[in-house]
Amino acid sequence: MSAVDTGVRLASLGGAACFVLGLHLMNSPATARRGNLLSAFGMVVAVLAVGVQVVDGGSMTGPRWGALLAGTAVGSAAGLYSARSVAMTAMPQLVSLFNAVGGGAAALIAIADYAHDSSPSAGIATATVLDVIIGGITFSGSLIAAAKLQGRWSGSISFSGGRAVSVLLSVAALAAGIAVIAGADNVAVLLIVVVAALGLGVLMVLPIGGADMPVVISLLNAFTGTAVAMAGFVLSNATLTIAGALVGASGAILTKLMADAMNRSVPSIIAGGFGTGAVGVEVSGASGRPVRAIAVDDVALQLAYASKVIIVPGYGLAAAQAQHEVRELAELLESRGVDVSYAIHPVAGRMPGHMNVLLAEANVPYDQLKEMEEVNSEFDRTDVALVIGANDVTNPAARRPGNAVSGMPILDVDHARSVIVVKRSMASGYAGIDNDLYTDPKTSMFFSDAKKGLAALVTATKTLVG
Amino acid sequence: MTSGFVGDLTVFILALLVGFEVISKVPATLHTPLMSGANSIHGVVLVGVVLLSSFVDGPVGYLLTFVAAAFAAANVVGGYVVTDRMLRMFRRRPVPPPRVDAAMEPAVESAVPTEPPTGPGAAA
User: Is residue A117 annotated as part of the catalytic site, yes or no?
Assistant: First the structure.
């Protein structure tokens, strides 16, 4: 092993260590930013090290440099621009796009490597096939997810025969994959795997509806990591294998956390549809009971004279981009001596931690945001629970068996002395069932768009009691 | 099957276990930045593209390298920048502004350390 080679390997090891330490520092908000910078530093070291390696190898030619550097420049510019300009409300789409390109790059590496040498060992061939399958599914699946989050289509799309096509594509991918591993020695066979994987990605994400998005994005992130680890096998590069495995593992944990928070399994989410099987059993209870509407001035008075208020934000807050208005209202109440905090359900919004990011953007301090386990005991001592654009995660029906949300951990909003729900209409949430909370005698409905409603509330509070 | 492959497999499995261990307890506040941070780490695929570029040939090879490099660079640069942007927004509750009316003071909930606990039982 030459001195340069040793140096390159040591530097790569250092880079990988930075990734691990950087992720570890993500355990606390106080150190998270340092963690990200450390991880970025590790990335620079790893890329420079491999740069030295290929220069030292002496095989870089003009066109090779041209393709590499031109691509890197274009990609960097695009990445930088999108990262700087994206609105915080569009963050889930961007993360999804980065998953797509990461998975796509990993798949392209396997394809190009196979085109270069189409008779690899069985181990490498297996990694090649897995790389294009996982990378291909991630690429097309993440693009669909991003388009859905952007609002090009809403909800879940399924068509008859979708399942049959999926089975067909899986069989094709499997058969062609086995042929490649058995030594087909033909790029066309690998391309069959690629096309089948791309189709599978589309079919996998299309039927998955909005509220399941946190699970899906996190899952696709784990997929990308795994695809990158496979690319590491293909190129026998430990940096890729380590970093890819790290992301795969962290993504898997996050995915499981999200799925647990909805009391659902990952396979059932992928299969599409909410609460398969149990829907339609339960009709008794909420429907038909009267709801009480409330006017803005009454809401303002209730809030202003409360001593403890908990705000429960949901996707409606993000959709209306009302995060600044809610912070303004909270600060106004705090200035009157009201104790205000926010209750965050793990799957509120469209990606893991979505509400936290939005509220952080509006300058809400993170220690004012409380997780479900922490805040649930506080509702008993709360005067007003202000629910803004959240629905299923507050539905007390989850405590009863036999309906679509049964068993899902919820925020115990109904334990508060009174509940005010800001909502545009009585439309049901993602689960498609009535929310018992709305017909609870102590609940008042403030029908409004979150942004306009909160702005009106701030004005009303100021004029009435300011 | 080469010893190199088995070595890679060893590294892969151990890294998976490290990943599970390092991430297992992250507060929900950081779920998005964590995902976004992990998301930038898979931009390490750029290292693979550099290696790839050293042996590709012909227009198709160059084109694949170009596209893969663009994808990977967008992932890595965009990922780190956007994660940093997000993390910069996370801040603690500021020291409460001085207030004249002390009776209006809400019960402060652990946000700002007021007084260290004293007395028996409060040690450690």
Answer: no
